[in-house]
Amino acid sequence: MRFDESFTSVMAIVSRVVDFTVGAMAFVEEEDLDVFLLLQRPTAPLVIEDAKVRLLEAIARERVGAPFAKVQARLFAPGGVTAGSEETALGGFASFPITTSGRLSGLLAVGGRAVAARIGSDTQSLLVQAANQAHIVLENSRLFERVRNLSIRDGLTDLYNHRHTIELIASEFGRVGRYEGGVSLAMIDIDEFKKVNDDFGHQAGDTVLRDVARIVKDTLRTVDVVGRYGGEEFAAVLPHTAYKDAFQTSDRIRKAVEAHAFRVGPRELHVTVSIGVATYPSDDVDTPGALIREADKALYKAKQGGRNRVA
Q: Catalytic residue at 294?
């Protein structure tokens, strides 16, 4: 089971014990803190921020050591969020620390109007047990997901690797066949990348690859996916996107890369990208392989047209 499925399932069990508005599970490592929050009803942003602050305060009370080097928070608002007026105040808050070999390893927290009343000893005991069991289940799920990510991610850019990118293209192509809406594919290639490696060294090349990957991800929507197709080439899969919109998105990527100053030690360099766009459904595209082929042909056209352009 994926981590997000495990987390929502575990928090659904906790909600049977106490009706919370915001529930959270924190995972404490040596220098890192990962926090996962789940909403059960419409909630104002200030309420969510209040829950985060109180959770961090609870962890600080239980933990000894230097401040965290990295804190990450992820919010889940599943389709099962109940309708109703938006919660504008957190109300009560309760937290239950989880220790491993005498060290804080996690924390379960619940907040909301129903938590305002004092939690009885029986309920508190039940939540302590639930916190420990939930932490074991979710930690195993996190470890499994980390191992899986290693098999589908590119080590340098943290984008999806070539094999998984091909799988995603095929999956999205199949989805279009079952539902309305098209899919576009943008093939992105860094212009004259060999010259970067030759003139500045391979470390500079790695910096450029990582930065371009980040720029592409930051430019795309959350529903879009991007992978490292190979070498200095990236593939962006854009669901529910017609050719015109995909072209405009690709041009935003092109302009963002062109405007970026790549820092290599004390030096600064600039690079450009060429992008080829193809869309399904369209003429000559009837398979995932054909979609890739047409995007590659468009990329070649952009290169032949002078680079730093979209075709």
A: no
